[in-house]
Structure to design on (314 residues):
């Protein structure tokens, strides 16, 4: 089947029968109000996602509609509460060896080679020799470079695509540089924190037909992993300033902003607050622009309800 013959998620229409291959992003068994189980899943390809429902013979679909699997499904597209959904009649797991991952996960719209050059150029513009040396050491690490060039920034919230982490990181660094000059802060420290703030995502997430958490991602998380890695790289450098180390690690550990969002520390320096706000701005703006660009609403003025942003977008 060619790309032209494929039924992409973005092209689904209510009332049509479909027979197609999609990646399972999420799935769970729930209880109907009147009793009895049903299964709700999220199916996806590189153009979007759709809710899938199994109303009958739920046990037959357990282990097939499983997150991380690619499945061949037969079903019907319906509309409920202004949202498309697929009622699944049949589903069969597709062998991993025959899966073309590019069908299911989109890539950054910006050439990753150009993004990587912007990242390295940003590092080379840093005036503080200790921070510049640290960043070059981190991003010249073969494992870091290989993973960072392709890693997503998130599983679903924002930049959830191939090279999404690279796109997000470069954007946060460029936003932070603009804001740092406005507030007359330590620009080199801000840029270093912005470039390193999500480094741990390269070990937290793994990329395939779907984006999934690694065991380390579930058990440790990206903030501790990146902090430990950066501290290790600092230890390899001679006479790295103790105060710079302290403030840089604080930026990494506080960039989620609040305890309720998984931040071990809240920002306690102007530079840490700025990195947190730049990160938050870029992630929220990306989520909003992606919602506007996506299709699936009958209303030309408003997007479908965004579960991530918890609102419709105009």
């Amino acid at each position: 089947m060619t790309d032209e013959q494929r039924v992409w998620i973005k092209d689904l229409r209510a009332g049509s029968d479909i027979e197609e291959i999609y990646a399972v992003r999420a799935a769970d068994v729930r209880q109907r109000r009147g009793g009895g189980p049903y299964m709700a899943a999220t199916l996806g390809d590189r153009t979007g996602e759709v809710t899938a429902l199994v109303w009958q013979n739920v046990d037959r679909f357990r282990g097939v509609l499983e997150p991380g699997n690619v499945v061949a499904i037969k079903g019907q597209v319906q509309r409920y509460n202004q949202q498309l959904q697929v009622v699944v009649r049949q589903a069969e797991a597709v062998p991993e060896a025959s899966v073309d991952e590019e069908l299911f996960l989109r890539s950054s719209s910006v050439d990753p080679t150009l993004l990587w050059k912007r990242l390295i150029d940003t590092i080379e513009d840093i005036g503080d020799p200790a921070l510049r040396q640290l960043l070059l050491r981190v991003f010249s690490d073969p494992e870091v470079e290989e993973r960072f060039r392709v890693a997503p920034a998130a599983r679903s919230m924002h930049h959830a695509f191939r090279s999404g982490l690279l796109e997000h990181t470069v954007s946060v660094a460029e936003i932070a540089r603009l804001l740092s000059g406005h507030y007359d802060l330590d620009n080199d420290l801000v840029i270093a924190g912005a470039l390193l703030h999500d480094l741990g995502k390269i070990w937290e997430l793994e990329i395939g037909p779907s984006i999934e958490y690694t065991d380390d991602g579930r058990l440790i998380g990206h903030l501790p992993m990146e902090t430990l890695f950066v501290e290790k790289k600092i230890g390899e450098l001679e006479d790295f300033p103790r105060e710079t180390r302290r403030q840089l690690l604080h930026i990494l550990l506080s960039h989620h902003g609040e305890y309720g969002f998984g931040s071990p520390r809240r920002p306690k320096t102007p530079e840490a607050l700025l990195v947190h706000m730049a990160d938050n701005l870029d992630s929220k703006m990306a989520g909003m622009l992606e919602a506007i660009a996506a299709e699936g609403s009958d209303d030309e003025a408003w997007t479908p309800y965004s579960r991530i942003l918890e609102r419709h977008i105009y």
